[in-house]
Amino acid sequence: MEPSAATTPPGKLRTWWHPLLVRLLEWLLRDSCEVRDEITVGRMPLRLDILLIRRLAVEIPEMALRDLPAICRRLNNFTLIEFKSPADSLERGDWNKLLGCAHLFVAQSESGIPASEITLMILAPRLTSVFRDELQQSQVKILEEEPGIHRIDCGSFSAFVVETDRVAGTAEPALTVFSHEFVEHPGQFVASLKLAHADMLYYVMQQIERFRSQMPQFEVDHMTEKLYQTLEEMEESFLSRLPIERVLKRYSAEERLRGVTPEERLRGLDQDERDRLRKLLDEQTVPS
Questions:
Q1: Residues contacting 142, CB < 8 A, separation 6+
Q2: Tens of pLDDT along 192-218?
Q3: What is the value of pTM for the model shown?
């Protein structure tokens, strides 16, 4: 849970990006994983806004494997994630902070956790020179496995950096939501998606609206008017491409009939349906 305004460290930009990532991970991974939005380490207790994903004895859903492959293919029994939103960037100290958190996480476990069961992951728009300098000073190597996905050879744990700006696109639709491509050109991204991604995108839209209405204390200056307009364009675009049966399933019978006059409702009924409706109305009439 996000800290209250009173406990937020000075200068820390509070946005809805972090809780949005947590909600989307929970929604995609479902019962296959437990997602915790921050972990407690040490004896203070010290709370760090590092995500923890713990694998459970359930297969990862196909939808998650399709929409979130960079993360799903690298999940371990325990995966610790440091997240940098489009409003943030990798800084000096981020690597050692994550590494230290991992060691404290192991130290506080009752029975101990083998290093082989822990993976460290950093999600950030781009690798930065100061972060590379920190890795060099720590005498660890970083190798690019795939475009935008790097493996850090640190010895103790498996570790990766995923550049959300570089992996953005239809191959990584979930992570694209957290890239500058989505913030700056959301309409182009939406137009490139397939109908199979509609449910994920609608979920993201619902969460954004929820944060805007229920969490006004979050900083939303980076949510431009263009993005507000695009949310409406996204819905209109997808509704126009969805089969009518799928569209209707999104609404209750009452919602579908809202704004339709009684005359319009009767217009499409045949005689048998009208007789049945008349009978139902007669049965519900209460004698005066």
A1: 127, 132, 135, 150, 151, 152, 153, 161
A2: 777 678 788 878 877 877 776 766 555
A3: 0.74
β-bridge partners, 150: 144, 161
Task: Give the span between the Cα atoms of 33 and 123, in whole angstroms.
Answer: 18
Average pLDDT of the chain? 80
- Round to whole Å and give the CA distance between 188 and 204: 16
Note the pLDDT of residue 1: 35
> Has residue 234 got a pLDDT over 50?
yes
Q: Which residue has the tokens 């290093």?
A: 115
Where helices occur in the chain by DSSP H, the ranges are: 17-29, 62-67, 69-72, 94-108, 129-137, 164-167, 173-176, 180-184, 186-192, 198-214, 225-241, 244-249, 253-257, 262-267, 271-284
Cα distance between residue 67 and residue 190, in whole Å:
14
Residue 256 corresponds to which tokens in the numbers above? 């579908």
Handedness of CA 233, 236, 240, 245 (dihedral sign): positive
| pLDDT recorded at residue 13 | 45
Contact 127, 115 (CB under 8 A): no
Buried b or exposed e, range 42-81, using 16+ CB within 10 angstroms: eeeeeebebbbbebeeeebbebbebbbbbbbebbbebbbb
Q: What whole-number distance in Å separates Cα of residue 123 and Cα of residue 125?
A: 7
